[in-house]
Amino acid sequence: MTITVLDTATGMSSVLSADDARRREALSDVLAPMEGMFRYFPGEVDLVAMHAMSFGFPLDRQLDETRDALARLVEADAWGRIERSLIAAVDAQARAVSDLHVPDITCLLVLGDPTDEYFMGPVRGFSGNGSATGYISLTLWPTEENLARLEAAAVHELNHNLRYAPGGVVWDPAAVVVGEQVVSEGLADAFARQLYGESGYTPIGVPHLGDDEVFDKVVSGLDIGGMQNFTAWVHGDPAAQRFGVEPVGLPAGAGYAVGNRLLDGYLTASGTTAAEALHASSRDIIDVALRTLR
Q1: Shortest CA distance to 239 belongs to which of 254, 225, 218, 221?
Q2: Which residues form the DUF2268 domain (predicted)?
Q3: Are the C-beta atoms of 154 and 136 separated by less than 8 Å?
Q4: Number of Cβ within a 10 Å radius of residue 53
């Protein structure tokens, strides 16, 4: 098992210092090691276009502001902290699950777009993706909150990687339901909390942790199938509006808040840790949690 945190400090510096005509090509070179993250996409993927769609920093504006943000990441030792957190988290997870399969992992850290109102607003300047086993992507703006929880954010995405690695839980696009993603977000947060305390909570879900109305609403949708429904039920109405799907009347991060409550109920009732629950089925977690919480 090898964990590679790409040297995007050097890469982004090269992009930001490149001539206008070369900037796109330079960014494509930085992103090239992440091509396998999109292996299930049909046809060839434009990595620079995916960068823009994923809130990545713009190439035609805010260049000085982005350079200053990059300097803040370097000063915070962001890359070293992420690498150390991933190594420690793999060790903790391997001690809890004896037959754990850990793939080689490539991690990308890039700056986001400070002019994107959705990115800087509802999602608080952070977006992570650990859904494709072997790859972790972290896109952020270096606010104090995001710098303080770099380790927890990386470990959250690692948990997704390991849950769906070979030998783990099978993500079947034809059969997966909202409940699986709600549980996976709650489990990833619970694992991050096991290692890093309160900073393990994904911030967008925190305002709704104690909201029973939000809890009941999300629970009512746990059996809804079809990945096209996940944005609205897990990320909430602001995400639904941003990505052009039908809102269902939920605030930002609702699924994260409910996932955390479900996991806390399950872990308390089962007497297990989040690390030990890595491969627990979402159906079992939901059933045990709801018996405990109701």
Answers
A1: 254
A2: 100-286
A3: yes
A4: 10
Do 92 and 189 sit in the same domain of this protein?
no
Residue numbers of the domain that contains 48: 1-168
Query: Residue 293 and residue 287: Cα distance in Å, rounded?
Result: 10
pLDDT confidence of residue 39: 85
Residue 40 has what pLDDT?
78
Pair 162, 203 in one domain:
no
DSSP 30-70: HHGGGGGGGTTSSS---HHHHHHHTTBPPSSS-HHHHHHHH
99 and 189, same domain (yes or no): no
Q: Which residues contact 213 (CB under 8 A, 6 or more apart)?
A: none
Question: CA-CA-CA-CA torsion for 48, 54, 59, 65, nearest 10 degrees?
Answer: -150
Q: Among 168, 192, 221, which residue terminates a domain?
A: 168
Reported in sequence order, the residue ranges of the chain that DSSP labels E, i.e. its strands, are: 3-5, 105-111, 126-129, 135-140
Same domain, 266 and 252: yes
Q: With left for phi above 0 and alpha for psi between -120 and 50, is residue 29 left, alpha or beta?
A: alpha
The pTM of the whole model exceeds 0.85? yes
d(CA 107, CA 261): 29
In the numeric block, the tokens 């930001």 are attached to: 16
Residue-wise pLDDT tens digits, 230-246 = 999 999 999 999 999 99
What pLDDT sits at residue 277? 98
